[in-house]
Specification:
Elements (H helix, E strand, L loop, with lengths): L7 E2 L6 E7 L1 H7 L5 E9 L4 E10 L2 E9 L10 E9 L4 E8 L8 E2 L10 E7 L7 E6 L1 H7 L4 E2 L8 E3 L8 H7 L2 H14 L2 E6 L8
Antiparallel strand pairs: 1-8, 2-7, 3-6, 3-9, 4-5, 4-7, 10-13, 11-12
Helix pairs in contact: 2-4
Length: 212
Amino acid sequence: MDPNWRHIIPPGQNQVISEGQCMEDCTAYAFPPEGIRIFAVMMRTHLIGKEVKLRQIRQNEELPPIAHDSNIDVAYQDFRRLSTPVHAMPGDRLVAECIYDSSSRKAITLGGLTMKEESCIVLTLYYPRQNKLTTCHSLPSLPTVLHSLGIEQLATDSNPVLISSPPELAGMTLEARLLSYDWQNHFNDFQDATRSGSFKPLCWGARNHVVP
């Protein structure tokens, strides 16, 4: 998942699930016809991550996870060799699924690069080499994020960003909504919206350009 503010982890929850998608179009474009074989992975979260899984979906069928760590340790995040290389084919979807425990936090945690923020990243080592794709991830679309917070529309060209609808939220800043949202009573709605809502796939080539 792209380390971005749209990656939101509500506070006070024993389990929050986030997913980063490497879409079928990306692997179909980049992987050689015979596919690749993944032989090692590094799974990364920050301080409140507790579980990471690299899922594999082929033609809408979920295959066994490529890798799964049910007790992620922020102090030990290195490449781990798989007991058997896993075959990934063009057109497969790869999903980084991260589970967080935010029960000790009183405020939301956003995606980012610092340790006080959070991440959901899986790096892979594989063969044979391909040079079309370097980074493959996703982030929730802005409409998905807004819907998860009960926001219908933002005001255009406002700084700070203001909510324009629904009427009961009109004039409130987006930051204030994030800070004041009733996560305890609406967490399930938020989780459903972020897991089933639309997202933006991001596939980057070796020269830092979007592919395909």
